Every structure is written in structure tokens, then in C-alpha cells.
Amino acid sequence: MILYIRKLLWRILGINYYNYLKGKNSVYLKDAKWPLVGDKTYDNGAFVWKWYNDSGLKIGKYCSIANDVNFICDPGFHTESEITSFPLFHEILEKNDEIVIDNIPYKVSDLSKKLQSKKAGIVVGNDVWIGMNATILPNVKIGNGVTILAGAVVSDDIPDYAVVGGVPAKVIKFKHNQEIIDALNKINWWDWSDEKMKLNINDFYLSIENFIKKHS
């Protein structure tokens, strides 16, 4: 019976139905009000997760984000103690209880704000393609032109125009040599106006060398 219900929910709500049911700390990227998302960027059902109010998510322009990508913007309450990763004060104490740290008493509600992790927030560059079911962990910066393969778990910064995959994600190759990467970043076509994009749309199907030669 339980298996039948799970299959039914999967069909109705999709593979991440458990996120839908829990719903407390995650939201669809397209429905979230706080991420900064650049012009023309789209997603097909990505999720953003955060437990701290100050955790940010910034995504550049012209990014393509596939189904069921997860942006985990902070580590929750698992990094406050050097002894355990269990969120003791959050799970055991009540909101108005007190806890003493370094001889200073704190209410649990105030402590959760004080102990917010510095390893929070995600920054994604421009022209980034993120494959299905990829997970982006907190305190990560993803460069321009990056491709993240499906199912990858990104735990470290990714340089411009790298292709990464695996768990944890590693650089598989670079799309271009450093000279070309530098030239593309200097052209920064993603900042062009809509009018300029329309006028030069055919140029995106030139060879990379001819594109750079024309627009440098």
C-alpha cells in the first residue's frame, strides 16, 4: 500500500514529491522571491533550499537550468559545534529556552541568528548550463560559461568555461584555451542589449575564432 501511494505521488507531483510534501525549507526557484536571477536565465523546475535568512543565491544571465537541480544555499544548523554535526539547540531546546556559550546566555531564537554559517550563499556566473539532478552546495562560486553534467554534486568553486561532473564534481575539461576564455569574458556578450543581440544573432554560429575577431 505504501509503495502504491509513493508511485501515485511520484506520478502526480514528480520525482521530488517529498520536497513538495515537506515544503518548509525548499521552494521552486521560479517561485522564490529572494534569489537574484539574471536576464534570459530559465529553469525547468529547480529547487532552492535555505535555513538562514541571509543566505543568498545569485545567478547570472543566459543560464540554462535543467529539471530537479538543487541549490542548497547554507548548511542549516549542522556546523555550529566542533564536536557534533547534530543541530542540538535547534532540535532539543524550545525557542524561548536559554543556552550559555562562553558564559553568555542566549535565547535559542537569538542564537540561531548569531551562529549562522559563514559558508553560505551561491554565486553562478553567466552562460552556465546545469544538468538534471545536479546539486550545488553552499559557499560555491561558478564561473562564466560552465557546464555542469547531470547528477553532479558541486562542492568547490568552478573556473570559467570548465565542464565538470561527478560526486564531488571535478573538472573534466575546459571548453577553450585560456586566451579564448579571456577574450570571451572581455566581450561579455551576455551584457549586450536585446537590440544588439538581435543584430548579431548569426554571429553565434561562427567559429569561436571569427566571433572573437569580429567582436574584440
From TrEMBL:
UniProt keyword annotation of Isomerase present:
no
Give TM regions: none
Q: Which Enzyme Commission numbers does its entry carry?
A: 2.3.1.89
Q: Which UniProt keywords apply?
A: Acyltransferase, Transferase
GO MF terms held by the record: tetrahydrodipicolinate N-acetyltransferase activity
Q: Which domain of life is it from?
A: Bacteria
Q: One Pfam family from the UniProt entry? A: Hexapep
- The answer to keyword Transferase applying to this record is yes
Q: Could you say which protein family the record assigns here?
A: Belongs to the transferase hexapeptide repeat family.
Name listed for the protein in its UniProt record: 2,3,4,5-tetrahydropyridine-2,6-dicarboxylate N-acetyltransferase
In its UniProt entry, the species of origin is given as Flavobacterium panici
Phylogenetic lineage: Bacteria, Pseudomonadati, Bacteroidota, Flavobacteriia, Flavobacteriales
> Per UniProt, what is the name of the gene that codes for the protein in this document?
dapH_2
